[in-house]
């Protein structure tokens, strides 16, 4: 099994003895019950990882690690961003979790016109914090050094602007004439995909996105839930772009 990953401040990612404490130290000592000699990876979540072994586990939340090596991963190309319409209940966190584990680079929450869920006021702040926490924890679980960015909630016109600036943009839609699996993809740059809500993408949104350069593409013969479509699409793109090669 690969070494577990823990989040650490960038200043701690250096060769030598590093102390991990606080919530991450508590998770390592009291939950994972790591002991001297076990391998661990510390990361800042931005692409840098410190590789070493545990030298001491003290109390409930203090882990000492002897770091042997520090590596920094280059930013992946092409970069994959999924614009995720707000789903009902906890399906938003499910979408973020599985997309993170699959390998998405950024997630943009979208207030689609047909979305049942609405983020407003205090609820918006709490929901966004949940999505970001989910991405962080899923990134550690997936042994990633670079965690996906979860952006602020976007309105439809903000999504259109994002699509217009992308090197490849598409809206996942069951009526798309072209499958995502055969669309021409760029080797570098930014890929942006839009996943609609349970009620589907409204015609006026489709029209606006089309003017921004995002054609409707289908995933396959079956219709996926909004909470799983982004994960399936990310897997297709990672395989076709060579990032899984």
TrEMBL record:
Domain called Ribosomal RNA small subunit methyltransferase E PUA-like: residue spans: 20-65
Residue ranges occupied by any Ribosomal RNA small subunit methyltransferase E methyltransferase domain in the UniProt entry: 77-237
Subcellular location: Cytoplasm
Catalytic activity from the UniProt record: uridine(1498) in 16S rRNA + S-adenosyl-L-methionine = N(3)-methyluridine(1498) in 16S rRNA + S-adenosyl-L-homocysteine + H(+)
Domain of life, source organism: Bacteria
InterPro entries: Alpha/beta_knot_MTases, PUA-like_sf, RsmE, RsmE_MTase_dom, RsmE_PUA-like, tRNA_m1G_MTases_N
Keywords: Cytoplasm, Methyltransferase, rRNA processing, S-adenosyl-L-methionine, Transferase
EC number: 2.1.1.193
One GO biological process term: rRNA base methylation
A GO cellular-component term linked to this record: cytoplasm
GO molecular function: rRNA (uridine-N3-)-methyltransferase activity
Function per UniProt: Specifically methylates the N3 position of the uracil ring of uridine 1498 (m3U1498) in 16S rRNA. Acts on the fully assembled 30S ribosomal subunit.
Family matches, as NCBIfam families: PRK11713.2-3 (NF008693), RsmE family RNA methyltransferase (TIGR00046)
Family listed: Belongs to the RNA methyltransferase RsmE family.
Protein name per UniProt: Ribosomal RNA small subunit methyltransferase E
Lineage: Bacteria, Bacillati, Actinomycetota, Actinomycetes, Kitasatosporales
């Amino acid at each position: 099994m690969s070494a577990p990953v823990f989040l650490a401040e960038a200043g701690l990612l250096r060769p030598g003895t590093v102390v991990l404490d606080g919530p991450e130290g508590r998770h390592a000592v009291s939950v994972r019950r790591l002991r001297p000699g076990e391998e661990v990876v510390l990361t800042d979540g931005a692409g840098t990882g410190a590789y070493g072994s545990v030298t001491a586990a003290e109390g409930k939340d203090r882990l000492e690690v002897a770091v042997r090596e520090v590596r920094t991963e280059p930013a992946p190309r092409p970069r994959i961003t999924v614009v995720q319409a707000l789903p009902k209940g906890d399906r938003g966190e499910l979408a973020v979790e599985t997309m993170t584990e699959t390998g998405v680079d950024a997630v943009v929450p979208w207030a689609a016109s047909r979305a049942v869920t609405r983020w407003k006021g205090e609820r918006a702040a709490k929901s966004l914090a949940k999505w970001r926490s989910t991405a962080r924890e899923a990134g550690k679980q997936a042994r990633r050094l670079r965690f996906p960015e979860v952006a602020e909630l976007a309105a439809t016109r903000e999504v259109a602007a994002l699509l217009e600036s992308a090197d490849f943009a598409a809206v996942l839609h069951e009526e798309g004439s072209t499958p995502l699996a055969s669309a021409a993809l760029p080797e570098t740059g930014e890929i942006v995909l839009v996943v609609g809500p349970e009620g589907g993408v409204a015609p006026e949104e489709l029209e606006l996105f089309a003017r921004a350069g995002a054609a409707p593409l289908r995933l396959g013969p079956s219709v996926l839930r909004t909470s799983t479509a982004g994960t399936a699409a990310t897997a297709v793109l990672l395989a076709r772009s060579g990032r899984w090669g």
